[in-house]
Write a structure and sequence with these properties.
256 residues; mainly alpha; 9 helices; 67% helix; 0% strand; NADH dehydrogenase; transmembrane
């Protein structure tokens, strides 16, 4: 309510159109990604390339954060936007590999078929590396916890430093929504979707999503905040090879 009562902040020679576009695209991309998120066993939309759609919408949010940082024509905001570009580039590749590995295990990129393939055994059980890489990269894609350098205090707020009022509310609300959607998508990919004993499918989905989201929120306090170079290097040298190795193991199992 306090943000709603504040006027927007103006900077010299700002590109207001692109700024508003970038701010609005963050929640819009999260909502579009949620279109293929199953509530139970079937999503609202179930295209044959649902996994690719989800990953593409995350990439759209990646571009939106950079636009929000670039448009105000502010040095600190611009640095925050470029920080997110570096972070997104480093963690998007292992994130994409982890998501694709789940599709490889199911033999399909359709989200409902990935869920159906886990009736007997969750993918998190025999794809633990892909599951761990997904959760870690989800934190980075939502710039949450130890990965919040794009909004760092050393930049007085980074990409959001020049945002005030409704603009700031929409941007930060979109960040929260992105975190919730990425947490929710771990359920159909690795935790069997709505499959479970006794309880209805929708309730199982809610419980699993809440558990993953709680884990990601706890990570904000449990994981230390490091310099960007300290956590960008492991993304390239550890997470990418680990995700590739997991994909290779899954491919061998599927072929056999």
């Amino acid at each position: 309510m306090r943000l709603l009562g504040r006027p927007p902040r103006r900077t010299t020679a700002a590109d207001r159109l692109l700024g508003r576009l970038g701010v609005a695209l963050v929640p819009v991309a999260a909502v579009l990604a949620a279109a293929v998120l199953p509530w139970g066993t079937r999503p609202l939309a179930d295209p044959g390339v649902g996994i690719v759609w989800f990953n593409a919408m995350e990439a759209l949010a990646w571009a939106a954060v950079w636009l929000a940082g670039w448009a105000p024509n502010s040095a600190l905001s611009l640095i925050g936007g470029y920080r997110f570009l570096a972070q997104g580039l480093a963690y998007e590749l292992p994130h994409m590999l982890a998501v694709t590995t789940a599709g490889l295990g199911a033999g399909s990129l359709r989200v409902s078929e990935v869920v159906d393939a886990q009736r007997g055994l969750w993918f998190a059980v025999w794809m633990p590396a892909a599951f761990a890489v997904y959760l870690l990269s989800a934190l980075a894609m939502a710039f949450w916890g130890p990965f919040d350098h794009p909004l760092g205090q050393d930049l007085a707020g980074g990409a959001a430093v020049e945002l005030a009022g409704v603009d700031r509310l929409v941007f930060l609300g979109g960040r929260w929504l992105l975190l919730v959607v990425t947490a929710g998508f771990a359920v159909p990919l690795f935790l069997g979707g709505g499959h479970g004993p006794l309880l209805p499918d929708g309730l199982w989905t809610s419980l699993k999503t809440a558990a993953v989201l709680a884990l990601l929120l706890v990570a904000r306090r449990a994981l230390p905040t490091l310099r960007m170079d300290r956590y960008l290097e492991p993304a390239w040298t550890v997470l990418v090879p680990l995700a590739l190795l997991q994909a290779l193991v899954v491919a061998v199992v599927v072929l056999n």
